[in-house]
Structures are given as structure tokens and as C-alpha cells.
Amino acid sequence: MRDRYVALKIDVDTFAGTRDGVPNILEDLESFGVKGTFYFSMGPDNSGKAIRRIFTRPGFLKKMLRTNAPSVYGIRTMLYGTLLPPPMIASSFPEILRATELRGHEAGVHCWDHVEWHDHLQSFPKHRTALEIGQACSLFEDIMRHRPFSTAAPGWTVTADSLEIQDAMELSYCSDSRGESPFYPVVGGRPFKTLQIPTTLPTADEILGENGINSSNIHEFYLNSLKEGLNVITIHAELEGNAIRPSFVRMLKLFRNAGIRFVTLSEAASEASGALPCRLVTGTVPGRAGNMAIQGEIVG
Ligand SMILES: [Zn+2]
After folding, report:
1. How many CA atoms are closer than 13 Å to the CA of 61, on its beta-carbon side?
2. Which end of the chain is more exposed for a tag (fewer CB within 10 A), N or C?
3. Residue 262 has pLDDT above 70, yes or no
4. Tens of pLDDT along 200-251?
5. How far apart are CA 238 and CA 15, in angstroms?
6. What spacing in Å lies between the alpha carbon of 38 and ligand 1's midpoint?
7. Is 42:139 a contact under the CB 8 Å cutoff?
8. What are phi and psi of 74, to 5 degrees?
9. How far apart are CA 124 and CA 49, in angstroms?
10. What Rg do the C-alpha atoms of the chain give, in angstroms?
11. Cβ proximity of 115 and 79 under 8 Å
């Protein structure tokens, strides 16, 4: 069998996830000698506003209850932006952001406001999309002392505008979609030049509680699902770094024992010289409410 290797994409969505989950993940990665790629939410934590999805997205309430969201995210986080003022994330923990790179990991930009992007990107005028990305990248540069080389959109939500702005920023690659292998996105016949490295496996919150998968065996699901070549697993600071941290450690141990190699997304990008243009389509995946960007067929 050809080599199976894994890139860990670590999404950091919330204030509490940055404060508690990132240090936990750093500790766990270090004990297994694994390097990962962190994507930070830079601006306000408006997680409480996500509650409105209960009324607009079928399946969201079911997911919140199935994944026991109140205990995962904590009551404070679920009130940020509604009953409690939204705390600013990255500027509250600059040393935590810097710690990721100091310890040899990669860091990039997830977003300015996770909830705004996820719920409203499709109706943003272009200047608003540029503002969300620009604010996030400018603060990232202040904290990290260099420009970001990569971004990863919240909820795998993109528009032609967001891809165009990312192209203009000359990023090395982005990780905005679900799919099978690295590709160059084509939307409505329009090609974009920034390499996309898609998430290839479902996230824990999409599969926990379904098909007999629970926090005690999810690590086996992931090992059994690895295909030859590159696999990209998105984990969350709030979940793998906190609520299901023991499951994450079991996965790291199982992968190590199975001889699975870890790469960063930059390493994956540098090995993606044969990437082809593919349609980027809108679709859904089991276990997650709402639409997202998915790699479609090869163009040309
Ligand atoms: Zn996210």
C-alpha cells in the first residue's frame, strides 16, 4: 500500500478555544512529535449569535443537542454577542498565537468574525468580504510579525469574491473546502490561482453519535478511513483540545503505532505540484447543517 499521511488542520473558533484548547493541543502534539496547522479567529467571539441558526437551518438544533453543545462550548460562549458582550479573541491571547509558531507549527487566518462570515458571507458586498479578511490579516501580521501565508474559511463557506480577494493576497494556499485532493478552484467557469487543500474526512462533531461512533472509538473510525496519499483532518480547539481531548490523544497514539506520517498543510502544498483545476461546488455533507464548498469534477 502507498504511504498514508495526515495533515491536521486545527480550527480555532472561540475565545475559550484559544485560551484553553490551543495550549492543550500544543501539549498533545508536542508529546507525539507532531506538527499541525492552526487557523485562528482573530476578531470578536459572537458565538451566541449562532443560536439563531436554530431558526434558519434545518438540522442545526438536532446537531447542537446530539453533540451536547452546551457542555462543549460552555454557557458563557453560547451567550457571547447576545446577553454577554463579544470578547476579542486574538488580541486577548497574542502569546498563545505566537506559541504555535515558536513551537514549530504553522499558523494562518480563519476569520475576523466566525459567525458573521459563516452566516452572512453569501450576502456580503465585496468590500465587506475584503474588510473581514483584511482586518483579520492585519491583526495577524501585528501579532505574528509576518503576513499570513494561508487562510481557511469558517464553515467551509466561500464566494467568488472571497476567492478573488485571497488570490490578490498572493497566499501560498487556502483550505476552504471539502474534497479529495489539492486542486485549483473554478467557480462558474472562472478559474482562481490559489491552491486549495481540502479537508478530506468528516469532523468529529459530524460523526459523533452517528453509526455507533462515540468518543471511545472515533480514533478507530479515523484510522480505518485513511486513504493512500494525503488525508486532511480538521479538528477544533473547542473539541479535540477540550471536550474530547482523550479521543484526540488516542488518535495520535493509534496513528503513531500504525506508522502514519504527519505533514503540515504547507508540506502538503509543496507536494501538490500535480494539482488540477476542479469545479468548486456548493453542497452538503452528512451531519452538518447548511451548505459548504465542495471539490467537484476536474475542469478541462
Ligand atoms: Zn471554524
Report:
1. 5
2. N
3. yes
4. 999 999 999 889 999 999 999 999 999 999 999 999 999 999 999 999 999 9
5. 9
6. 11
7. yes
8. 85, 150
9. 17
10. 18
11. no
For residue 1, the CA-to-ligand 1 centroid distance in Å is 33
Query: Which residues, other chains included, contact 273 with Cβ-Cβ below 8 Å and sequence gap of 6+?
Result: none
Q: 89: which DSSP letter?
A: S
Q: Cα of 12 to ligand 1 centre, how many Å?
A: 6
150 closest CA partner among 185, 175, 129: 175
Nearest to residue 194, comparing CAs of 169, 215, 214?
169
The single-letter code of the amino acid at 93 is F
40, 41, 264 from 226: Cα distances, Å: 26, 28, 16
Predicted confidence band of residue 71 (pLDDT cuts 50, 70, 90) = low
CA of 13 to the centre of ligand 1 (A): 5
Ligand 1 centroid to 45 CA: how many Å?
11
**Cell numbers standing for residue 91:** 488580541
Find where cell 458563557 sits.
Answer: 76
Residue 188 burial by Cβ neighbours in a 10 Å radius (0-12, 13-18, 19+)? exposed
CA dist 60 and 289 (Å) reads 5
Q: 114 alpha carbon to ligand 1 midpoint, in Å?
A: 6
Cell (9 digits) for 75: 454557557
User: How far, in Å, is the centroid of ligand 1 from the Cα of 108?
Assistant: 12
Instruction: List the domains of the chain with CATH numbers.
Output: 4-298 (3.20.20.370)
Give phi and psi for 84, each to the nearest 5. -115, 145
Q: For the residues 278-284, what does the mean pLDDT come to?
A: 97
Instruction: Look at residue 263 and give its three-state secondary structure.
Output: strand
Distance 152 CA to ligand 1 centre (A): 8
Determine the Cα angle at 281 with ends 290 and 277, to 5°.
145
How far apart, in whole angstroms, are the C-alpha atoms of residue 231 and residue 239?
Answer: 20
Phi, psi values for residue 279, rounded to 5°: -65, 140
